[in-house]
Amino acid sequence: MASTAIHDSAAHHDHGHHHETFLTKYIFSQDHKMIAKQFLITGIVMGVIAMILSVLFRLQLGWPDKSFPILETFLGKWAEGGRIKPDFYLALVTIHGTMMVFFVLTAGLSGTFSNLLIPLQLGARDMASPFINMLSYWFFFLACVIMMGSFFVESGPASAGWTIYPPLSALPKAIAGSGLGMTLWLVSMTLFVASSLMGALNYISTVLNMRTKGMDLWRMPLTIWAFFLTAIVGVLSFPVLVSAVVLLIFDRSFGTSFYLSDIVVQGQVLPNQGGSPILWEHLFWFLGHPEVYIVLMPALGITSEVIATNSRKPIFGYHAMVYSLIGITVLSFIVWGHHMFVTGMNPFLGGVFMITTLIIAVPSAVKTFNYLATLWRGNIRFTPAMMFAIGLVSFFISGGLTGIFLGNAALDINLHDTYFVVAHFHLVMGSASIFGMLCGVYHWYPKMFGRMMDEKLGYLHFWLTFIGAYLVFFPMHFMGLDGVPRRYYAFTEFEFMKEWLSVNAFISWAAIIAALAQVAFLWNFFYSMFYGKKAPQNPWESNTMEWTTPVEHLHGNWPGEIPTVYRWPYDYSKPGHDKDFIPQTTPLSQTMSSNLPHDFEGNVEAEKIQAQWKSEVKPSAAKKKA
Amino acid sequence: MANFTEQDKANLKAKKFLVWLFVISSFMLFAALTSGFIVYTAGSVERGIKISLPQSFMYSTAVIVLSSISMHLAYLSAKRLQFAKQQGYLLLTMALGIVFFFLQLSSWTYLTQQGVYFVNPNASQSFLYVFTGAHLLHVFAGLMMLLNAWIGKLKNIPQVNNLFRLESTSIFWHFIDILWIYLYVFLLLNQ
Ligand code: HEM
Ligand SMILES: [Cu+2]
User: Fold this and answer.
1) What is the C-alpha separation between A263 and A271, in angstroms, rounded?
2) Mean pLDDT of chain B, nearest integer
3) Rounded to whole angstroms, how far apart are CA atoms A115 and A99?
4) What is the assigned CATH class of domain A1-6+24-213?
5) Domain ranges (residues) in chain A
6) CA–CA distance from A290 to each of A162, A212, A240, A331 (Å)?
7) What pTM was computed for the model?
8) What is the pLDDT of residue B13?
């Protein structure tokens, strides 16, 4: 067995290094580590673009009557006279939301860390199908290019919001953005869904089929559990979006009436009859709600890993963490109606959705308590990654609490479509997941690039971003409670909202400062790639398998045989052991002084050996003490 | 590489699993479409299929069930190393697949003759085209897989790979078969 394994890796090696050109190594790479980096860098670029879009619309919201001539220089007719036009404002919020949710926090997050960590933490040479994995990246890349391309068409990008509700999205003549821009949005998202599905299929198959010896499911790090369940959610929900989009395309281009009925555009009665826009909402939110967990769960997994490592403690409640992830996975499919409380749904149905929605708070709370319990009395190392992980916990709490308000149908009738919702999801999903992603970047940077990032810049980045995010999103709760609606271009046109002008200016300043803080990150990220300190093999003294691979990347990950796994990944500060961590690849026979009865999982032989060892060592140790 | 290592075999197993996962995601697509049909149709009494389904659906059902049987025979032949038989059954499966394809198209003609058009104020009727159309796309993909398996043997690829292609093709082809029966029964119940 052992000899065939060695032979395998040698053979593998040969064909891996045969003719590696620039093109096969950096561009059309099939190596999961390179694909992870491609996803990460594309995700960061999309993140920066989406952030700049948000600063643009914050200018309009903060200073609605002011002219910024420089905008006209860059944006031309979309900012005539230095003021963002209403049509363009709607395009900005739409593309900002789409890019952040799908390109940054889905592809950028899952794509990067699932690709990097699934093979490395499970002990596999690569993904189930490296070729499909490569396709997954290139579909994503194409989706990004097409979405960006919509900024260069005459009528502008899609403008119906990231949820593209019909009839606005279904009638090319409804608004400027519903023309070619909307078509490009649909093409781009179709490619994106294909990319996500290819990725998810690979992740699931790899996790189930390609774990190394000894890596049973209950020894998998929580990162892998999170990526695995996220992929399952994706496989079950993305096809539903495809079906919704297909029907929308038929309505737009073929004249069918799935979503359209009784519509008059500019005095003209349209022929479409009999459709129902509510049908779209059902199909969209059946994906849309699971999607928010597709965004969040990988961040939660990353956080579990980083918090345990840097508290130098086993994660509190490993099984509870897994079961709550499973609970979230299942529940996320039966709550979509909470986005539709005001569509005139049967109040009984609303009540059902209200109950399922509030039940999700239970697994969420379990996770929160377990994070806090892991931190409690930990031997905490405040690395930048750890700071971001703690930041995630903070956002998850403050944003999750408002979910409980929104989940109550009676309250939601008032709060729906106000800034309260914007505050809720930017804290619990936006900020929390971005912090999870940044946490992952700081933690696994040494693994990806073989060098360390600068810590001081990391702290600067953390504090400015953390405080900035709260200053931006917290005040929005109060605006929402006062009834200020989201997606309004000129809120000052309404008497009762005028008083929010100063708050909006304040939020815009906070947003601009937080955006500038990202320069610290970008500098750190790209500078360290070439000039950072060389990374040691296991910089964080972590237990998981990725740190047993050499710092230099090689095709197939481990030079010789793939190591075997003997224990779970959270043996930190185990009493009786001389170091405060024991890698998963350390056999129990090398840790006699710290083994506990349940470590043997009922293996009688091993228990006997341990008992014998104890009887030999203990008396002599006791004698010494005396 | 004539002899296959443990690693390669593990990889084929993982790849075959990908086909299963694809089947699941595909099934979700149809589950969504049929749920969409239910939500839509329940909205008002003016909606619904309102005609009897074309006769040709019965013939196409028979044809695709037969094709599933010949697919299975091709797979069995591959396992028993009877390659001439394997190729023959593959061709038969493809032929039946193509017949199915045209039977479905002929039901579209029948529908339009009945005045049931794709562009229709009663979208329940438009759904008929969406279901069959989306299913035909899968049939097309299945035909490509059959062709790929057939050509593979023609080029004399190693038996491990030949069997892998036949296994994944037959998983997918049986899925297409079951999917059509699901759609047909669903439509019959909502007739
Ligand atoms: C305690 C758990 C949670 C509850 C009870 C909850 C409840 C709700 C409700 C009822 C809405 C609809 C508000 C409206 O449109 O009127 C909503 C919106 C939203 N929630 Fe949550 N939520 C929870 C956690 C989360 C999490 C963990 C995420 C993301 C990771 C999230 C992301 C979102 C997003 C993105 C929206 C807005 C979508 C849009 O209209 O654009 N929520 N939430
Ligand atoms: Cu939701």
Assistant:
1) 8
2) 92
3) 20
4) mainly alpha
5) 1-6+24-213, 545-625
6) 15, 30, 11, 9
7) 0.92
8) 87
Largest interatomic CA distance in chain B: 65
> What are residue A581's DSSP bridge partners?
A572
Determine the pLDDT at residue B8: 64
Whether B86 and B77 have beta carbons less than 8 Å apart is answered as yes
A521 has a chain B CB within 8 A of its CB: no
Q: What pLDDT score was predicted for residue A614? A: 85
Structure-token pair, residue A617: 């060592």
CA distance from start to end of chain A:
49
Per-residue confidence at B120, pLDDT binned at 50, 70, 90? confident
A291 lines ligand 1 (CB under 6 A): no
A428 close to ligand 1 (CB < 6 Angstrom) = yes
Per-residue tokens: A72: 């006209």
The answer to whether A12 contacts chain B (CB < 8 Å) is: yes
B8-42+53-189 domain in CATH 1.20.58.1000?
Answer: no
Q: Worst-scoring range by mean pLDDT, A261-265, B19-23, B68-72?
A: A261-265
Print burial letters for B61-89: b (CB count within 10 Å at least 16), e (below 16): bebbebbbebbebbbebbeeeeeeebbeb
Q: Mean pLDDT throughout B56-68?
A: 96
Q: Which pLDDT value is given to residue A179?
A: 93
ipTM above 0.85, yes or no: yes
Task: Please list the ranges in chain A whose pLDDT falls under 50.
Answer: 1-17, 625-626
> Looking at the complex, does the CB of residue B158 fall below 8 Å from at least one CB of chain A?
no
Whether the Cβ atoms of residue A12 and residue A556 lie closer than 8 Å to each other: yes
- Using an 8 Å Cβ cutoff, are B87 and B155 in contact? no
Question: Is A274's CB within 8 Å of B123's CB?
Answer: yes
Per-residue pLDDT at B6: 59
Q: Best substitution site from A424, A426, A487 to test ligand 1's pocket, by max atoms within 8 Å of Cβ?
A: A424
Cis peptide before A167 (omega within 30 of 0): yes
